[in-house]
Write a structure and sequence with these properties.
The chain has 7 helices and 19 strands. It is α/β, with parallel strands linked by helices. It is globular, with a radius of gyration of 19 Å. The protein starts with a strand and ends with a strand.
Length: about 300
């Protein structure tokens, strides 16, 4: 793997412990590319969240948490959970990964904190007419990142081109960050990306280039024998730098599932939340592609 004719030797600068918390198992949306669906769950999320919060408060090292789902804002005690997470001193960042369909009034009830980052996912299969407006308004109160998902239907493409341009203009004004997300399929040890209609593919490539040129962008560190450089995540992905099978990876990440089972990220291992100690060791990457951009920050060394 090369960067400007030089072999990449390392990726990532190191990262605090990374925890994904699947707060609920359902969503308001029924997207064709996602396995979460709208339904009424009988899981007692309130009781589970108390157990999980108690465990999180006992973590001794610095960590970050991604609140995911389903749609995490459907958790019955969402605001209270946020308050408790903010109070954990060594929790350095709280990322809320949301479809952003909740109204502005919902977000105004959340405690203001520099720890909070809202990752608002734009899903073209569903209308979210206030998406851009909310993004701009709430960027004055929270760190906002738009994860813009490109679908492969021409009728959706015609509509979302303008929405992407509006999001890009906000990113250009440094009101938020913007990331381009391609459709992909995952099976254990394998991730494949969608082959797009040529017109859509051209638009995606142009969009990725525009995002890469922004001053305000999310980046990943790469190292060769001569240089150390932070490059845009979109550039990292477009050049296939996430093809990391066989690399030594200092992965420190977990996924707390809605049923209180905890997966060791990138490992086929699970424990119950009550027995998990949130400690893990590095691995040799078994995957053809490292799909999760959060995990690109963990140090990876070429074989």
């Amino acid at each position: 793997m090369q960067y400007e004719n030089q072999e990449i030797l390392e990726i990532g600068q190191g990262s605090p412990l990374n925890i994904n918390w699947e707060m609920v198992s359902h969503c308001q949306y029924d997207c064709s590319y996602c396995y979460y669906r709208p339904f009424t769950s009988d899981t007692n999320y309130s009781t589970l969240s108390k157990i999980i919060l108690k465990k999180l408060k006992n973590i001794e090292e610095d960590f970050i948490i991604n609140l995911i789902g389903g749609e995490p804002t459907l958790h019955p005690d969402f605001t209270q959970v946020i308050d408790e997470l903010i109070s954990i001193e060594n929790l350095k960042e709280i990322r809320i990964v949301t479809n952003f369909i909740k109204p502005e009034s919902f977000w105004n009830k959340i405690q203001r904190s520099s720890k909070i980052k809202i990752t608002a996912s734009y899903h073209p299969e569903y209308k979210n007419k206030d998406f851009i407006k909310k993004s701009e308004i709430l960027s004055n109160q929270f760190n906002i990142d738009i994860a813009f998902l490109f679908t492969n239907k021409i009728e959706e493409f015609i509509k979302y081109k303008e929405v992407f341009e509006d999001a890009y203009q906000l990113a250009k004004q440094k009101k938020l960050t913007l990331n381009c997300i391609r459709l992909h399929k995952e099976e254990y040890n394998n991730t494949t990306y969608e082959e797009y209609d040529p017109e859509i593919e051209d638009f995606i490539q142009a969009s990725e280039q525009k995002v890469s040129s922004l001053d305000n962008k999310e980046t990943t560190l790469i190292k060769t024998s001569d240089i150390q450089k932070n490059i845009a995540k979109s550039h990292f992905l477009a050049n296939g730098y996430n093809k990391l099978k066989g690399w030594k990876c200092d992965i420190k990440a977990f996924i707390i599932h809605y049923d209180a089972q905890v997966s060791y990220a990138c490992k086929n291992t699970k424990k119950h939340i009550l027995t998990c100690d949130f400690k893990t060791e590095g691995i040799i990457c078994p995957f053809n592609l490292c799909e999760c951009d959060d995990y690109w920050s963990f140090k990876k060394v070429a074989p």
